[in-house]
Amino acid sequence: MSRTLKVASGSIAVGILVLGLKYLAFVLTGSVALYSDALESIINVATAIGAVIAIHVAEKPADAGHPYGHFKAEYVSAVVEGVLVVLAALSILREAYLGWLHPAAIATPFTGLLINGLATVINACWGIFVIQRGRVWRSPALVADGRHLLTDLYTSIGVIAGIFMVAATGWLVLDSVIAGLVAVNIIWSGFSMIRDSLGGLMDEAVPKETLRRIESVIREQAASTALQAHDLRTRQAGPMTYLDFHLVVPAYMTVARAHAVCDAIEQALHEDLESCVVSIHVEPEENAHEHARLTF
C-alpha cells in the first residue's frame, strides 16, 4: 500500500470516530446545529472512501487502454466529493428550516459542546496533516479530502459558538440560524472543490511558480548549446506534470548532439519536478521565433 493510500485510509477511520462523537453530541442535545455538524461528518466518511478508491485507480500503471496512466481518477473523485458536500448542505438547510418553524430547547448543551469540541480538535489535526501530505505528494484527492475536513472544522467552531449563545441567551431560534449558516458555508466549499478539480480535468496549466522553475531549468541546461525554446505547454494530472516545447539548435549541430542536449534537459526536469513527462521537438535555427520567451 502506497503512502498516499495509507493516509486516505486513515481518513476513513478518523471520519468514523468523529462521526460517532458528533452524533452522540446531537443525541444528547437534540440540537439542529449539532445535527448539521454530524451530517457533514457522514459525508466525510463517504468522501474518504471515494478518495481511497480514486487513489487506488490513479496508482495503476499505464496500460494499452490508458497509455498516459490513470492519474485523472483523483480529479473525478474530488468532483464527486464536491457534489456530495453540496447535497449534504441542502439537507442541512431543510433541517434548519424545520427547526426555524418549530424551535425546541437544547438538552445538556455543555456536555454536547464538550463532546463536539473533542471531535473538532481531532478533525482539525487530521485535516491539516492530510492537506500537507496531499500538497507535497501532489494528490488532488488528498487535498480535497483535507479541505473538506477543514471546512468541517470551521463549521464546527461556528456551531459550538452558536450553541453556547443559545444556552446563554435562551434564543432557541439561533440553533436553526447557525445550522443555516453552516449549510451556506458548506455549499461554498463544495463548489470550490468542484471548480478546482474541473481545472485538472480540463488540462489546466501548471502554477506560475512551477512554470518559472521549468523555464529556469531549460535555460540553465540549454543556454550554452541551443538558441531558444518556444511554444512551451504544460498540464497536470495528479502528481504527474506533462510538458512539451520546441528547442531551436544551430543548423550545424548533429542529430546525436541535439539528442544529448534534450536528454540533459529532460534529466534536469525530472530531478526538479520528480514526476513528469517531457516531449521536445528539435528545430533548426531558421525556425527561430522572433519573440520567443526563452532566447539564449
Secondary structure elements and their pairing?
Elements: H1 3-29, H2 32-58, H3 73-101, H4 109-136, H5 140-169, H6 173-201, H7 208-222, E1 228-237, E2 240-249, H8 255-273, E3 276-284, E4 294-295
Parallel strand pairs: 2-3
Antiparallel strand pairs: 1-2, 1-4
Helix pairs in contact: 1-2, 1-4, 2-3, 2-5, 2-6, 3-5, 3-6, 4-5, 5-6, 7-8
Q: What radius of gyration results from the CA coordinates?
A: 25 Å
CATH topology of the largest domain, which one? Alpha-lytic protease prodomain-like
CATH superfamily annotation of the largest domain: Cation efflux protein transmembrane domain
Contiguous uncertain segments of 5+ residues: none
Task: Report on the architecture of this protein.
- By secondary structure, this protein is of the alpha+beta class.
- It has 2 domains: 3-201, Cation efflux protein transmembrane domain (Alpha-lytic protease prodomain-like); 208-295, Alpha-Beta Plaits (2-Layer Sandwich), CATH 3.30.70.1350.
- The chain is 69% helix and 10% strand.
- The protein contains 8 helices and 4 strands.
- Strands 3-2-1-4 form a 4-stranded mixed beta sheet, with helices on one face.
- Helix 2 (32-58) packs antiparallel against helix 3, helix 2 (32-58) runs parallel beside helix 6 (173-201) and helix 3 (73-101) runs antiparallel to helix 6.
- The longest helix is centred in the middle third of the chain and has 30 residues, at 140-169.
- The mean pLDDT is 85.
- GO terms for molecular function: cadmium ion transmembrane transporter activity; ferrous iron transmembrane transporter activity; zinc efflux antiporter activity.
- The chain crosses the membrane at residues 12-35, 41-59, 71-93, 113-132, 153-171, 177-194.
- Pfam families: Cation_efflux, ZT_dimer.
- Residues 207-285 form the Cation efflux protein cytoplasmic domain.
- One of its GO terms (biological process) is intracellular zinc ion homeostasis.
